[in-house]
Design a protein that fits this description.
11% strand, 7 strands, alpha/beta, 3-stranded parallel β-sheet
């Protein structure tokens, strides 16, 4: 189709592991892309996609349509108007029925990508969109800086909650990023934890 037709935009909706190749092929031809999620099932494919999108200068997005639901639009409006104060912590859940009739590519991690890039990405996105904040990625603190087991009731899971000063929360500054693909990389890492890589939403 890409060879035969003159296209302005394409929709990519393939077995998940094939999404990045199709998107890259369209981007190389200067065609805008709206892709089913996940954008990619591993970080190397996501990096190649990110590079091609920036090099081509096209518009790229994935289908995060829960933003259009009235309940989330109302929540976002409440945050924008200051009706509930500043969100500090958000908890959410998103689920699909897995069932026995899912296509073959759901059965292998390499072709499926994981539950978080497939399902959890919706919850991560609407938390970020409603709160008007950004997900962030940061390296884990070295072992000698981590909380000891039992400290503050957090076990040995890392640095703990943001420190408070004079009644205000000091938030860790998010690193410089290249935008939504950086955040997708963070989300894929959630599905397949990478050493020294943590994600969150502030």
């Amino acid at each position: 189709m890409l060879e035969k037709e003159s296209l302005e935009v394409v929709g990519v909706c393939l077995p998940f592991f094939q999404n990045p190749e199709a998107s890259i092929a369209a981007a190389r031809r200067g065609i805008h892309v709206l892709s089913e999620k996940p954008a990619a099932t591993d970080l190397s494919d996501l990096a190649r996609l990110e590079h091609q999108v920036h090099q081509s200068g096209i518009q790229y997005s994935i289908m995060l349509d829960m933003r259009t639901l009235p309940i989330f639009r109302a929540a976002r409006q409440a945050v924008q108007q200051g009706a509930i104060g500043e969100p500090i912590l958000i908890s959410s859940q998103k689920s699909y029925k897995y069932g026995a009739k899912r296509p073959w590519f759901y059965r292998e991690r390499k072709t499926y990508g994981g539950t978080i890039p497939w399902v959890g990405i919706h919850a991560l996105d609407y938390m970020e969109w409603v709160s008007r904040s950004r997900s962030y990625a940061r390296g884990r603190p070295p072992p000698h800086r981590r909380q000891r087991r039992g400290s503050r009731g957090l076990g040995n899971r890392g640095a703990g909650p943001p420190a408070r000063s004079a009644g205000k929360v000091r938030r860790p500054a998010p690193p410089a990023s290249s935008g939504f693909l950086h955040r997708l990389r963070c989300r894929i890492a959630r599905g397949k934890p990478a050493a020294g890589f943590e994600c969150g939403s502030l």
